[in-house]
């Protein structure tokens, strides 16, 4: 394999902002935020709005996701003239 062409594959913490649930996995995503994890080490942090802890399919609860402006933007773009 060629050197210096692959992204940095490292452990990253993903935090669900709506349910305050966090999990660690490996990813190549780039972020400037960091968080101190349960093992005492510091890892890159990625904040997400929806995860399996807050998604209605997995929880069985209704969840209001802020979609303000999306419908108006769609109607503006695809409105019949």
UniProtKB/TrEMBL annotation:
One biological process term in Gene Ontology: translation
PROSITE patterns in UniProt: RIBOSOMAL_L31
InterPro entries, sorted: Ribosomal_bL28/bL31-like_sf, Ribosomal_bL31, Ribosomal_bL31_B, Ribosomal_bL31_sf
Keyword Ribonucleoprotein recorded: yes
Cellular component annotations (GO), alphabetically ordered: ribonucleoprotein complex; ribosome
The entry's keywords: Ribonucleoprotein, Ribosomal protein
Gene Ontology terms, MF aspect: structural constituent of ribosome
Gene3D superfamilies: Ribosomal protein L31
Subunit structure, as described in the record: Part of the 50S ribosomal subunit.
Similarity field: Belongs to the bacterial ribosomal protein bL31 family. Type B subfamily.
NCBIfam families the UniProt entry points to: L31, PRK01678.1
Name of the protein described by the UniProt record: Large ribosomal subunit protein bL31B
Species of the source: Mangrovivirga cuniculi
Gene transcribed to yield this protein: rpmE2
């Amino acid at each position: 394999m060629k050197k210096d062409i692959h992204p940095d594959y490292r452990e990253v913490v993903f935090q669900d902002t709506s349910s305050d649930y966090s999990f660690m996995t490996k990813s190549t995503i780039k972020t400037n935020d960091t968080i101190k994890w349960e093992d005492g080490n510091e890892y890159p942090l990625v904040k997400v709005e929806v995860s399996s802890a807050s998604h209605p399919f997995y929880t069985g609860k209704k969840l209001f996701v802020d979609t303000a402006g999306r419908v108006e933007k769609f109607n503006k773009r695809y409105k019949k003239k």
